[in-house]
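Deliverable D2.4 — example input (structure tokens):
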């Protein structure tokens, strides 16, 4: 699942089989020793979307998934005709782990804010050790449930939740109350998150400094 789509689902806190929490489980103390993404313009790799990345983001085609990274935040919401000043800033914490865990604050004050989690592996770093290319995947509650044979129902929450995760009452997602289950979910979900074919795994790279 691409990072922009993941944030959109997380903003609704109904992403289906996603690990969530009602309060932040990772803090600045968990960041120590973890290389951070280089600030600037980022985009998903998509070999079917060909365009000139040297142009300002506002001139990129609709097929291009892009966002801006600030220290401790992701600025997302690119849409034709929408200025960057109107994008939404989501607080993030990239915590050390194997793999690293990206905690993203989503939602508004009403309904209450929440947090979603993403596993992240660095593929390339710059000369200062900052991440400039990565693969990522959503932290799942457990192995995906088998598809509905009739095709009538959307994908459901797992039937085998990871220990320490509590399935929500609507059976969409699950809730964590400690770091351990999130770390376990992120590690296991690397095998469940799909490949770089649009089925689940996000392959992203830094494009340039700045917000444009």
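Example output (designed residues):
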């Amino acid at each position: 699942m691409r990072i922009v789509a993941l944030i959109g689902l997380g903003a609704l806190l109904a992403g289906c089989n996603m690990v969530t929490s009602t309060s932040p489980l990772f803090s600045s103390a968990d960041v120590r020793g973890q290389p951070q993404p280089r600030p600037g313009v980022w985009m998903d790799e998509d070999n079917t979307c060909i365009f000139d990345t040297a142009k300002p983001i506002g001139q990129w085609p609709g097929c291009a998934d892009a966002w801006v990274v600030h220290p401790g935040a992701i600025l997302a919401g690119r849409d034709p005709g929408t200025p960057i000043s109107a994008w939404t800033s989501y607080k993030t914490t990239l915590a050390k782990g194997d793999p690293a865990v990206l905690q993203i604050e989503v939602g508004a004050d009403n309904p209450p804010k929440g947090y979603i989690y993403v596993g992240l592996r660095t593929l390339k770093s710059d000369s200062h050790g900052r991440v400039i290319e990565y693969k990522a995947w959503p932290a799942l509650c457990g192995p995906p449930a088998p598809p509905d044979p009739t095709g009538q129902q959307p994908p459901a929450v797992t039937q085998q939740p990871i220990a320490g995760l509590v399935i929500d009452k609507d059976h969409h997602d699950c809730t964590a109350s400690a770091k351990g289950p999130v770390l376990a979910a992120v590690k296991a979900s690397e095998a469940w998150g799909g490949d770089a074919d649009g089925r689940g795994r996000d392959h992203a790279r830094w494009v340039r400094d700045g917000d444009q």
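DSSP finds two helices and eleven strands in the chain.
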